[in-house]
Amino acid sequence: MGLKIQYKNVTSCDEAFLKVKSFITPEYIQKFQVKADVNCDDTKKIVKATGSGFTLTLSFFESYCDVDLELSLILRALKSKIMAKIEDQISKNL
After folding, report:
1. What is the phi/psi pair of residue 32, to 5°?
2. Is the pTM above the cut of 0.70?
3. CA–CA gap between residue 59 and residue 11 (Å, rounded)
4. For residues 45 and 63, is the Cβ–Cβ distance under 8 A?
């Protein structure tokens, strides 16, 4: 199940994609004490972070960002807390 975050501070999916792409880096993710590979698809406007036990996918559309988080069985109990933190961080920037 994904989460849709409406844009508030940006006016297009291109602007939102570039803004998120600039702050979601391996160093940023490391603040949360996890290691992840971050891949950006400029054509499809998708940012994907993959690490041990999780995959975070951000897909950008005209008026919103779709957030999808896949977690390993061990981490699933924390999904609501993790999604709330992600929603808060992305909402501030978009």
Report:
1. -90, 10
2. yes
3. 16
4. no
